[in-house]
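During the reporting period, our protein records have gained a structure token line. One record among many is quoted in full directly below:
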Amino acid sequence: MTVVDRHLLDRVARERRFDDRTMQIARRLFLEGHKPKRLATEYGVIHQRIYAIRRLVQAAVNDFRLPEGWTEVTLQGPADLVHATAALFDEQMRMREGSDT
């Protein structure tokens, strides 16, 4: 099972269509360690709904998981510099993929 951290939950919230309440529950479940029974009571839902949210969010997080040894970066700066950096990265990836075959 993939560890769910704040970064992954933020990405799931941005890129998936979970409503705000679902993501609130997910944050409390994964990041704050609240028990499903407590969340079910507080949000007025049956506990099976909390388990379903956990399962759905975990699946979404697994979709975003990177291969072992990989990391993710976001670049911000002048557009020409970011494009040049991206082009260099693409070239290096093609070279790496070519050497793997």
